[in-house]
Amino acid sequence: MVEQKNDFTEWYLQTVQKAELMSYSPVRGSMIFRPDGFEIWEHIQEEFNKYLRSEDIRNAYFPMLIPKHFFMKEADHIEGFAPELPWVTEVGDEKLEEPLALRPTSETMIGAAFSDWINSYRDLPYEINQWANVFRWEKKTLPFLRTSEFLWQEGHTAHIDEEDARRRTLNVLDEYTRLCEEFLAIPVYKGEKTPSERFAGAVDTYSIEAMMQDGKAVQAGTSHYMGTKFAEAFDITYLNKENKHVHAHTTSWGVSTRLIGSLIMTHGDEHGLVLPPTVAAHQVVLMPVGPWKKNPAIMEKLDEIYAELKKLGIRVRLDDSDNSPGYKFNEWELKGACVRIECGPRDLENGHAMLKVRDLADKEKVAFDDLIATIQTHLAEMTPRLLATAKARNKENEHFHINTLDELKAHIETCKKEDKPTGFVLIGWDGTDETEAKIKEETGFTTRNIPFDVPMEKATDLITGEPAKHTLWIARAY
């Protein structure tokens, strides 16, 4: 495999295929989720569904085909998505009376339904979530991170007033932060998007941004306060306590299978996947080593360990293939197995097994009597340790003392010469689209978000030197 440090993107492409997470599809820009890849998504779904249930938000499903006139009702929305919308225009030899879009998102379809379902203040808040596929015809694609068809969850809610809607918007952002950091061990930067980066039709968009090992950003999740714009477009009104018909305030929010790409780019190493046990398809792999076929007691012991782990709900595999131990070690490291247990004739004789944790360098000798408890301890400790490692790496690639465009360009050149990531740069911004566009044009850096917890205030705009209105993070991004 290509080494990470030599070509990070090529390393990523080789890893996701050799680890059997995905395959390319015959359709341009789309991909096939193989079982190990899809299982990661299933564990993310399971975890986020716990939050939904705790908040009494129920899952629903809406049609994939959306009539064109729905999009025309909200001008900013159609303008934002028009370049990447695929349309169905005919069935067989028959032209459709109205083109139907493959959904890029479901605000319009769900807005029309809310208009029918919501009548009184007693109906609010009305909150639902959908797990679905969406289509955006991407010109430049990368598996999991940017594909023409991808999987996601999209939450949609309607509220009695702005305060309640904004509470939900930010509450979901907090949950996305917890999901990424505590469950996926991906540290994120939480904040508000600039106007040019807002979701099409939103009043305000908030995001969590993740830094990959090569210093580039991935937008890991977004939550949008829509105001009454979609309510006005789709006539989502309710009778309030004063007996007046008023518009509801709506929100939408989503994370997607981009999280899988972020996971790989955050934790992977030269040997392949490094996955937190929370989502790894293979938490433990058991391997007989040495001349084990001549000693049936080895497999009997491993079968016993397998049954105990399985009973505890641990995702365990037993590799009794004829491949050499070295081949097996490499294969399961590539696939991101969290804990490897080896047992040979001498191990059995001495009452122990050898244990190797994926993200730790050394093997350890563990007595059979202590093995299950030791495995459980390692599985519990691995996710927080991966998060701490990623946070420490991020800190090394955060830059706070770049205050002019020339300094940013010099930073980029230095990183290129020293083969280092350009990382996240904290800058001052005057709040204009012109300076934001200039940064991108001159350096390829884009604004990530205006952080809620600003590490330090920047006084002047990076481009003009005029007083800054905001302090924000910029980075190159996927």
Report on the structure:
- This protein is 37% helix and 27% strand.
- The protein is globular.
- The protein has 478 residues and is an alpha+beta fold.
- β15, α9 and β16 form a beta-alpha-beta unit.
- The protein folds into 3 domains: 260 residues, 2-Layer Sandwich (BirA Bifunctional Protein, domain 2), CATH 3.30.930.10; 96 residues, Rossmann fold, CATH 3.40.50.800; 77 residues, C-terminal domain of ProRS (Translation Initiation Factor IF3).
- Strands 3-7-8-14-11-10-9-22-23-21-20 form an 11-stranded mixed sheet, sandwiched between helices. A 5-stranded mixed sheet has the order 16-15-17-18-19, with helices on both faces.
